[in-house]
DNA sequence: CTATGTGATAGAAATAATTACTAATTACAT
DNA sequence: ATGTAATTAGTAATTATTTCTATCACATAG
């Protein structure tokens, strides 16, 4: 009788979730689409977008906005930060948990009501470091 | 004799820079366009985009990517963080300087070469707080 | 088992933000 | 004053994402 969580676990949704959890690369929606069509050639890009959106709204996965033009997705929902390679856009995980409450600090400085923070790094991934060295 | 910084100070560029430095609202490119056409009706949206890009690449202004679909710009290039209102998208400044070197901490956890960090908050701006209260 | 309602899908079209193109104009060094 | 490369306005193109629509899948009621 109450508002239920009507989430059908369709084949597409299941494969999307499985695939995202399998990789550690923080793929874009289109990356996912390219990966998925190998196992499910008729899957639609719209379906990939819609399901990544639904899954992240349900808190089952994470939608990332780490700069660059495309959103990325992460099957790991534990609290962690990210680094983005300024050259190739590749995104890696970083476990830096600030040792004090950033939200509390921030709240003292503003009349916004602070909910949460997001800490992100920029840098150069191992592959692009290597390329730079080769060119130099 | 050396590679010079060929930055012509055109009327448009100057007005764009002046206007951005005048406001504290972290406008989008289109916000800027709307503001600017009042003083310079024939300015083109493309010109606004290009100049904001050039100015931020030169380090004269800052390009922000605080989530949402549009990039925002900030005439204040001193180191500070931002809050984004989850309801209306408005962006505010926050002066929280972490009390230890986040980059150094992060570098221990990854094989990326860390350059810098970005700390951002999400919350509710004063205006939307008020609206929420009124509706409740 | 068959009907029915509701959510989900594929594929295509639409939208939003940004970037690229082009011919005309302008800033600035000489 | 003049040559020239940078910049402009206006428009077209591109990119990422969302919406639309007809069809399909699945749970439940009869």
- Give the strand content of chain A: 15-25%
What is the averaged pLDDT score of chain A? 90
What is the fold named in CATH at topology level of the largest domain in chain A? Arc Repressor Mutant, subunit A
CATH classification, class level of the largest domain in chain A? Mainly Alpha
Q: What's the CATH superfamily of the largest domain in chain A, by name?
A: Winged helix-like DNA-binding domain superfamily/Winged helix DNA-binding domain
Helix and strand run of chain A: HHHEEEEHEH
Tag the structure with descriptive keywords.
3-stranded mixed beta sheet, 2 domains, DNA-binding, Arc Repressor Mutant, subunit A, alpha+beta, flat, homodimer, Dna Ligase, domain 1, 136 residues
Description:
The structure is a homodimer of 136-residue chains. Chain A has 136 residues and is α+β, with helices and mostly antiparallel strands. Chain A folds into 2 domains: 1-75, Winged helix-like DNA-binding domain superfamily/Winged helix DNA-binding domain (Arc Repressor Mutant, subunit A); 78-136, Dna Ligase, domain 1 (2-Layer Sandwich). Helices cover 38% and strands 20% of the residues of chain A. Chain A has 5 helices and 5 strands; from the N terminus they run αααββββαβα. In chain A, the strands form 2 sheets. A 3-stranded mixed sheet of chain A has the order 4-3-5. In chain A, strands 1-2 form a two-stranded antiparallel ribbon. In chain A, a hairpin with a 7-residue loop joins β1 (62-64) and β2 (72-74). In chain A, α1 (11-22) packs across α3 (45-57). The mean pLDDT of chain A is 90. The structure holds a DNA duplex (30 and 30 nucleotides).
